[in-house]
């Protein structure tokens, strides 16, 4: 029995519009959530055209011209804009009948390269029982026939398995949200032996250690410690008959362990350091979870990953920004302050789920709006951009 994908109804219209506009083929990403029983697809996003295609208005003519690197870069950028609980669930291709027989091979290649690129950036390890199937959706632009298959990305030799693709209205209109603010104070020593203060690498190592602390933390949901296998909504009143997008928020507190218990032997090492990095501030974290009897452990796992992702993504964005503005060779050993970008949230029409992004203090709303159009093919009103954090983080 293959997997079943429940898909937001509006995606059907979106894919249909793409198939009439873009010939002979168009690729893109599927965004949603995996759960043990079924998967949910709440967004489909076409691959943005490259500059030269925009200018000359040309479409590539055969599948050999699919730019794998461009599509994996797009997937990495999009994954930064997804709050906890959401991920790139697969890849789609809409192609003319002549190209359809090669489409499946192209999709298989894309699924594995996208997953490889996303895994490389993650600071958390997937859980044992985690769903590792990713969707390959193929649509014929002439007949509109939809074929959905899955590949197991943990197995490089995996072959295609059939999957069901079912549209549903108001799929994510009343998903549950978990919110928390995490105070961060991470001290990362830079070893004197570390070659020319490789800041990015050292920061990643420091974040790696911190992420293990987050993994081991205790999460209080609405003031209570709950058993992982209980239902998240147990004992809460259900919202009745309301399909308007309405979010039930749970307030979460994160308790990190101050010191290891006596059962852990601590071995201290002394290392000569010549400098250090300090990451300080309060970060807003959020995860969304489907409303089909979700378990506490699913929700907590989604929130843990958001906490870890939001900090590592910001550091990545900051280093990219520094390289663009200062060049990679700037070596200055005085005390320097850099403000990490702030987090913001933007609503999705017909859904209770919000997408996320980051802005530097001097970035205008117009730049954020452009990014949403380019990366997520979504136009955003300036008044819908909710900045979640104070500037002093």
From TrEMBL:
Localization per Swiss-Prot or TrEMBL: Membrane
GO cellular component, one term: membrane
GO biological process, alphabetically ordered: intracellular protein localization
Protein origin, superkingdom: Eukaryota
Keywords noted in UniProt: Membrane, Transmembrane, Transmembrane helix
InterPro entries associated with the record: ODR-4-like
Listed Pfam families: ODR4-like (PF14778)
Function: May play a role in the trafficking of a subset of G-protein coupled receptors.
Similarity-based family: Belongs to the ODR-4 family.
Protein name: Protein odr-4 homolog
Native species: Calonectris borealis
Lineage: Eukaryota, Metazoa, Chordata, Craniata, Vertebrata
Gene: Odr4
